[in-house]
Amino acid sequence: MIEPRQRLPVTPRTGRFLVLAGVFICAACGLVYELELVALAAYLIGDSVTQASVVLSVMVFAMGVGSLLAKRLRCRAAAGFGLVEAALALVGGCSAMVLYAAFAWAGDRGEMWASGSRYLFVVFSLAIGVLIGAEVPLLMVLIQRVRRQDAGGAVADLFAADYVGALVGGLAFPFLLLPWFGQLTGALLTGAVNVLAGGALVLGLFGRDLSPRGRWLLLVVNAVVLAVLASAAVLVDDFERAARRAVYGSEIRVAVHTGLQEVVLTGRDRESLHLYLDGRLRVSGRDVRRYHEALVQPALRGGPHRRVLVLGGGDGLAAREVLRHTGVRRVDIVEPDPAVVDLARHDPALSDLNGHVYRDPRVRVTHADAFRWLRGPHRRVYDVVVADLPDPGITASTQLYSQEFYGLVSRVLTDDGRFAVHAGPAATRPRTYWTVDATLRAAGYWTEPYRLTGRRGAHAAGPDRTADPGEAPRDWGFVLAARAEPVLGAARGATVLRAGSRAAERLRPSDWRTIEPSTLVHPRYAD
Predict the structure, then answer these.
(1) Entry pTM
(2) Is 90 exceeded by the pLDDT of residue 365?
(3) 284 touches 458 (CB < 8 A)
(4) 369 labelled ligand-binding
(5) Is 150 part of the annotated catalytic residue set?
């Protein structure tokens, strides 16, 4: 049915342009809310593929529900659209703060956060999806009030503006909002733009459709939403500091968002120092020496070690352990985040912990993704490669534990070279750990799995986000690999390898020979 044309304060052509501009802005804001939820879910819960699938599928379903519910508002399309946009701006704009608050102040309850957080993300996905879905039916009514046209033409115009707006919102989120404003302020700013665009369109163009009382009501609602968003923006820095203290403790010295991750450093001396990357504990002053000795010593004692490659390890701690061995002539570190290296160079406690390795002329740093760097042309080969990387269970790191990645490493290893891999906690994630071993064997390596128990640092600094809910990992799992089996024989003389191999053997599953390797197209790291 074609809606009767209404008297407007502008020409029909200008009115149509304004409606489509409103569609464009609202679509951009809607996609930002979606991406914000996906990013937060991946950061706070982990496993980005699963969280993205849940958030997006629930949101698309909710959009269909919202479209059906919007049919009841068609008789008051202008007022309905104005209220929908105000509600969407409030819910979407505040979603990041609410979810981060739940993470910070309920996260230390372990299981409560693990189960409740997923429901909270689903609730926000449903609410935002319903409100986004209600937009198009109402806009369909409004655009036909501006200029009479068939339904097919109106739908084509609306969806063209909607899709272009989604493109702009999708590009603005990673390239503008995140680097310039961060997740919390970016969401609040998006909400402000959303409510201003929706309110201006309804009150400016379709104000005559509303009764005087309706205009005042919509004006007050928009003003309240703007006030809430503005107040939250003013308090966002204090809120973030308080939330960080709840997550990391009171001794936060450095907290920065780089282009790649959030870096947080706590503690003021070697013993109390903790380094977190994206909320996950990566360095603990209490455990750092034991961890890096176990990672590095078996590989370096197994044969020549003039040239050593460290993948990750921008904190300099693996390099410090490497340089303790005589005969090392060159250490190349491939670390993607310059901010981590800068912190390891200049922070007094961290640089003291790593022995000021970046002052050593034998240490060279390349800022690059390890996978891409290995795919490039290389004239240099290494006696030892050390993979000091995040746990394989983290989706962003899955490609660095793939059969293809290990094949690339073999290209830069000498024939008698050794490859040391940090493979995550063996006791709490045994399937993931033994998948690393299976993947290395599939890539043509001989392997020696081993583990180190007695981990302490995770308990000293609050919840470890890499752990199972409510329980921090109590061990580290490693795998020593070589292209020839006799090479491993020489390395087995290391004390930590002999004891660690027996400890790992006790956890070996009965079906370990049939565990499938993880590849780029079929990642298998899940317990």
Answers:
(1) 0.82
(2) yes
(3) yes
(4) yes
(5) no
